[in-house]
Each structure stands twice: as C-alpha cells, then as structure tokens.
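Support request, priority: normal
Reporter: lab tech (M.K.)
Component: structure prediction queue

Hi team, I submitted a job for Putative pentatricopeptide repeat-containing protein-like from Solanum chacoense yesterday, and the status page still shows it as pending. I've pasted the exact input below so you can check whether something in the sequence is tripping the parser. The sequence length should be 346 residues. Please let me know if I need to resubmit or if it's stuck on your end.
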Amino acid sequence: MNNGLHLNAAVGNALLDMYAKCGYIESASLVFSGLKEKDIRTWSIMIWGWAIHGDVDKALRCFEQMRLTGIKPDGVSVLAVLTGCSHAGRVDQGLQIFDSMQRECSIEPTMKHYAAVVDLLGRAGRFDEALKFIASMPLEPDYVIWGALFSACRAHKNIEMAKVASEKLLQLEPKHAGGYVFLSNVYAGAGRWDDVERVRSSMKNKNVEKDPGWSSMEVDGQLHTFVAGDSAHTRKQEINLKLEEIITGAKQQGYMPETEWVLHNIDEEEKEGALGSHSEKLALAFGLISTGPGVIIMIVKNLRVCGDCHSLMKYVSRMSQRVIVLRDIKRFHHFKDGVCSCKDYW
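Reply from support: The job had stalled in the queue. We restarted it manually and it finished. Here are the results:
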C-alpha cells in the first residue's frame, strides 16, 4: 500500500474484489499482500481471483496458506478452489478437495459444489463418471447441474449425452432459451442441420427467444458495446479495415479460421465472413485503433468466447505485442505473446 493507508479487512476486501473482477489480478495480489488483516472472505476472494484468471497453482497455494494460518475453509473458499481445478483440468485434485469437505472441514456440499464437480468431470470428458456422480447426489439435480454437463458435451461433441442433458434442462425450465440453444449448437457443430432447424422451429413455436451476444470495452471513460455484424459504431469503417488487416496478418502466420464455430448451414466462404463479424473481434479491432502501443486491451463478453475468436486473439497478441484480457461468462483469458492463460483448456 504505497499511499501509507492502513486498510481494514472490509475496505481491503472490497478493493481486492474490484481488482480481481475487473481483470487486474496482479494488482489484486499486491493489495492482498499488503493487507495486515485477512479474514476468511479475504482469502476466498484471492483464491477466486486466481481461479477465474487461470492460475490454479496459485489458487491451490493460497488455499493451503489459508489453512496454515489457522483459518478453516468455508463453502465459498472450497467452491473457489474447485472452480480453479475445473478450469485447469486438475480432476484428481478437485475430487480430493470435494471429498475432504465433509470429512476434514465439516462442510455440507451445496448444489454449487455438486455443479462444480460435474463441470470438473465433464470438461475432462469423463461423462460416465459425471452421470454416476449426479445419480449419487443427495439433492435433486437442478438446471445448473445439467447445464454444466451440457456445456461439456458441446466441447467434446458428445451428441447423445447432450440430448439427455437437454431433455432434463427443458423439463426443468421449458421456457429457458439455454436448453434449446445448447442443443442447436451441438447439432450445428456436428453438421446435423435438419436437427438444428427442428430445434430452432420449436423455439419459434414456443416463443422462446435467446439473449443476443455482445462484447464491450471502455476507452477514455466511455463504454463501447458491439454485437455480431455491428455497423452502428461511428468508427465502423476503421474497425472493419483494422479487422481485415489483423485477420490477413494472422493468416500469414498460420491462423486458420475455425468455421465449425459458425452455427449456420452456409458455404465455407460465407462462414469465414460470419466469423469475422463476431462481437469480440469487433471490440478487439476497436481496441487496437483506439489505444496506444503497450496499452492492455480489456474486453468483456456476456457469453462464452468462441473458439475461433480465442485462436485469433492469440495471434494478435503476438503480432501487436499487446496483452489482451477477455472476460467471458466463465472466466478471464489473458493473451500474451501468442499464448492464453487458459492453456487452451476451457
């Protein structure tokens, strides 16, 4: 704390939480190190921070340091470290921590803890174990549980399991767009366009609408928000030119547009065009033309980032010598020198 102020736990925790949620995890770490008073919330915020920023080793180390100071883990801190294990593919460590909740810490797992384990197993492609785990739960599986399993099905292209999870989702919340969108996306990823059309027609007939995706970033105190194919921005021509420039440059360095992320039955050339108009790419191009060299580009997206945008951002971080920080609905991605903090496990 260079300003010489002594922060109490409440103020320190608020500052720590702000930095972690806004993408400045190293600043959060500095605040954490400078706090003289650390309660269970302080430790939990820091563990969460490392977890959602993709540094599971620091999350686990922080969890152990907390225990060594004599502070007993609570449900929030355990959930935080489980999330870190899930995002990094540390299945065995995550399962050990979950198993120790009741045995060593006398913590009764909540639905969120069970969902974290389903996510942990699903991301690793261990679907049979995930189903057995769900069947063994003492609580009735809810929308979050089946949603966690479904998300993993798309990543691993497991259509049959996706259908099972989707049916459960629609039974629980028949008017929620997520179940329909998830299943439609899985079918699209497998090229089953008749099934895609059937799901989308069902949505239309039942008046179910999905939330549009958007990406935003702040420049000079002003928030700029983009949607796919956006043409409303005052600098749209500059943005499109910059986007063409970075895509061309990335292709010269080996980037190949991942057209399987286009969820419409159109030809390959049209798919490349559709990929180029994704909201996070527009925000990236805007960031590059609106900020000076060396300035970190911070983007927020309300949905999960698509694989093609993720790939392009790795190339652009190396080409532009910029750090790009993208926060999607699941986690933070830090792109630097052609590498993402998630290590492509997301």
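The beta strands are 214-219, 222-227, 297-301, 324-327, 332-336, 339-340. The CA atoms of residues 224 and 295 lie 17 Å apart. Let us know if anything else looks off. Ticket resolved.
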